[in-house]
Amino acid sequence: MSSKEWYALHVKTGSEEDVALDVYRIGDADSLLPIEEFTIKTSKGVRQRRRVLMPGYVFVGCVMTPSVWQELRHLKGVLRILGEPYEAIPQEQMTNLVALYWHCVQGTKVLRVDGETQVVEGALMEVQHTITCADPRQGIITAQLDLPGGIREVTMHAEFITPDKEGRPEADERCAIRSPDCQCEACDAKRGGPKQQAGVEGGGSSIPHAGTSDQRRQAVP
């Protein structure tokens, strides 16, 4: 019996949520649609908002057959199925998509020092990515990822961690950076004392991007 794989649907912008729900009417198919929720300040107070991270796309997990392909293709709002017929999303791209999904669930924390922004907590730490833009005032970052259709830039909200006067992340009950070169107070305490400041100037922390988590792959809705 064939195993379930994931496919990308190109849909009309604004119809993503409707298409994602309609997918469940097709056999045992599942859908994945990263949507983040955030708050904004308006003249009428704080308002809750939500947005699709990849407008125009819905991702479907199913055992693809000619009949399933036809049903997906003719769902209201679907423009086409990406790739050649029955061409599934590669595993690396699917892992990146799941990271975006978990960003929407758990959020992302970043640290910005000397003009450089690094992810220090969240699912993006487990996938290869590049931060191409960061706006601390609006709490927004743009991450470049390998996704269906090629390398794409995805804009998302993030929590910016404020460093202390020495340029180190503020102390937390656990270290979010998890690097041997981390200069936070929590890591200093574990090492038995603070490192010399030269260690910060000489290179800073090394944030791991490579590697994936079995738990995240298994957590695809």
Distance between the termini: 21 Å
Order of helices and strands: EHEEEEHEHEEEEEEHHH
The CATH homologous superfamily of the domain at 1-89 is termed: NusG, N-terminal domain
Q: Percentage of helical residues?
A: 10-25%
In the sheet with the most strands, the strands line up as: 2-5-1-6
Structural class: alpha+beta
Question: Quick one: CATH class of the domain at 1-89?
Answer: Alpha Beta
Number of strands: 12
What's the helix and strand layout?
Elements: E1 5-11, H1 16-22, E2 30-32, E3 35-42, E4 45-52, E5 57-62, H2 66-73, E6 78-81, H3 91-106, E7 109-113, E8 116-121, E9 130-135, E10 140-147, E11 150-157, E12 159-161, H4 185-191, H5 198-201, H6 214-218
Parallel strand pairs: 7-12
Antiparallel strand pairs: 1-5, 1-6, 2-5, 3-4, 7-8, 9-10, 10-11
Characterization of this structure:
The chain has a domain of 89 residues: 2-Layer Sandwich (Alpha-Beta Plaits). Helices cover 21% and strands 33% of the residues. It has 6 helices and 12 strands. The strands form 4 sheets. Strands 2-5-1-6 form a 4-stranded antiparallel β-sheet, with helices on both faces. A 3-stranded mixed β-sheet has the order 8-7-12, with no helix packed on it. Strands 9-10-11 form a 3-stranded antiparallel β-sheet, with helices on one face. The longest helix is centred in the middle third of the chain and has 16 residues. The protein is globular.
